[in-house]
From TrEMBL:
InterPro entries: G-type_lectin_kinases/EP1-like (IPR051343), Kinase-like_dom_sf (IPR011009), Prot_kinase_dom (IPR000719), Protein_kinase_ATP_BS (IPR017441), Ser/Thr_kinase_AS (IPR008271). This is Protein kinase domain-containing protein. GO terms for molecular function: ATP binding; carbohydrate binding; protein serine/threonine kinase activity. SUPFAM superfamilies: Protein kinase-like (PK-like). Belongs to the protein kinase superfamily. The lineage of its organism: Eukaryota, Viridiplantae, Streptophyta, Embryophyta, Tracheophyta. ATP binds at residue 106. The keyword Transmembrane does not apply. Keywords: ATP-binding, Kinase, Lectin, Nucleotide-binding, Serine/threonine-protein kinase, Signal, Transferase. It comes from Vanilla planifolia (Vanilla). The keyword rRNA processing does not apply. It comes from the Eukaryota. PROSITE patterns: PROTEIN_KINASE_ATP, PROTEIN_KINASE_DOM, PROTEIN_KINASE_ST. Residues 78-364 form the Protein kinase domain.
Length: 425
């Protein structure tokens, strides 16, 4: 079923390390010719190098998982007959290996499979998730690279991604509050491990409900590491091209400042608000001056509404109305406060993911969000308007930074209108 290439030549050199943390720098060379991305000397070269496109299937990747033959994956998926997901990257199919293990096979779109960007994301995914293991990170079983064919083989998560359970249509089962918090805590644990459990800090760069997978029994796993960046122990941040998904982007993507693990924290805060409300943050409905929609049943830009309601100390209305009161104001308030702390404009003011886990579990006191550090969030929600009633008490800092924030908001609006075009550069 799984056969090594006849030209297999493996050279493994494991970096010396003074810790017991897993290292992502096992080097294995597979193929005939010089490899296209070389990650040994630069952990980020798989994404930022000037690779040339070719049809060669030669790969030089840290921590190489099992290499599958394309024919074997065709058999495993019954000729890709059961599609369980799709996106800009391609399609995902359910498969069964000869040992009866269920897997999910991601088939990169043939039209873009040979592009430099797709190759870099393909290699980064294997390099990052193929060398680390955690209960809240999806396991990469293997990959296939034959000519222009690019496929990734993951463990199968039978409930699919979080967005399916969270944003289900009419008649769909409703996630109860306790299960929502278990999902939030599981995802936070996975990110915490990426940020502090490995030799190199791993910044996911694309935290969103679609990249959080669920399985029966309460299993929660972070997936899709194609956009991830690695930081060396000496780095506190790095500059890189914009990446991620609009609606979850931290302000630093737009300010020409370094990204760090706190960039993931911001995205997680946006996801947590969606878990609380049970809908996308940028939903329909006109926002009234009080922050709620005219119908009273929905909100406009939910993060801004959550901030306004927090400042009033009113939390019950922020919960998913489908819960029909099966959650207390105290429980909702705790989650809202944690989410808003994650959305602080200055990265250093955001909590670590380990702190987020502790706050959500109630093992430490929940920090109070700082309204003066959430001006960017408020401005994005309200456009360019800063209301007069905010200026005397809460708006002093916002007034001092008004031009800066309006410029940042303008850039974010342009990004939204461009439909994510910048993220493809």
């Amino acid at each position: 079923m799984v056969a090594p290439s006849p030209q297999l030549k493996a050279t493994i050199s494991i970096e010396a390390t003074s810790t017991s943390k897993p290292t992502a720098m096992k080097e294995i060379y597979l193929g005939r010719n010089p490899a296209w991305p070389t990650l040994a000397n630069d952990p980020n070269s798989a994404l930022d190098g000037s690779d040339s496109d070719s049809d060669s299937d030669d790969i030089f990747i840290p921590g190489l998982p099992t290499r599958f033959l394309y024919a074997d994956l065709v058999t495993a998926t019954d000729n890709f007959s059961t599609k369980i997901g799709s996106g800009g990257f391609g399609e995902v199919f359910k498969g069964v290996l000869p040992d009866n293990t269920e897997v999910a096979v991601k088939r990169i779109s043939a039209g873009v499979g040979g592009s430099v960007r797709i190759k870099r994301e393909f290699c980064t995914e294997i390099a990052v998730i193929g060398s680390i293991h955690h209960i809240n990170l999806v396991r990469l079983r293997g990959f296939c690279a034959e000519n222009r064919r690019r496929l990734l083989v993951y463990e199968y998560m039978n409930r699919g991604s979080l967005d399916r359970s969270l944003f289900g249509g009419p008649g769909a089962p409703v996630l109860e509050w306790g299960e929502r918090m278990e999902i939030a805590i599981g995802a936070a644990r996975g990110l915490s491990y990426l940020h502090s459990g490995c030799d190199r800090t791993i910044v996911h760069c694309d935290v969103k409900p679609e990249n959080i997978l669920l399985h029966d029994g309460g299993s929660v796993k972070i997936s899709d590491f194609g956009l991830a960046k690695l930081l060396t122990p000496e780095q506190s941040g790095l500059f890189t091209t914009m990446r991620g998904t609009r609606g979850y982007l931290a302000p630093e993507w737009l300010t020409n400042t370094p990204i760090s693990e706190r960039t993931d924290v911001y995205s997680y805060g946006m996801v947590l608000l969606e878990i609380i409300r049970g809908r996308k943050n940028r939903g329909g409905g006109e926002v009234s001056s009080s922050g709620s929609s005219g119908s009273g049943g929905d909100f406009g830009y939910f993060p801004m509404v959550a901030l306004d309601m927090h400042e009033r100390g009113s939390y019950t209305e922020l919960a998913d109305p489908r819960l029909e009161g099966r959650v207390t104001a105290e429980e909702v308030g705790r989650a809202v406060k944690v989410a808003l702390c994650c959305l602080h404009e200055e990265p250093q003011l955001r909590p670590t993911m380990a702190t987020v886990v502790a706050m959500l579990k109630g093992t430490i006191e929940v920090a109070r969000p700082r309204p003066d550090a959430l001006g960017f969030l408020r401005l994005y929600g309200r456009g360019f308007v800063i209301t007069a009633e905010e200026s005397p008490q809460r708006g002093r800092r916002r007034q001092r930074n008004r031009h800066k924030q309006q410029w940042l908001t303008f850039l974010l609006f342009v990004y939204d209108l461009a439909g994510g075009f910048w993220a493809e550069l």
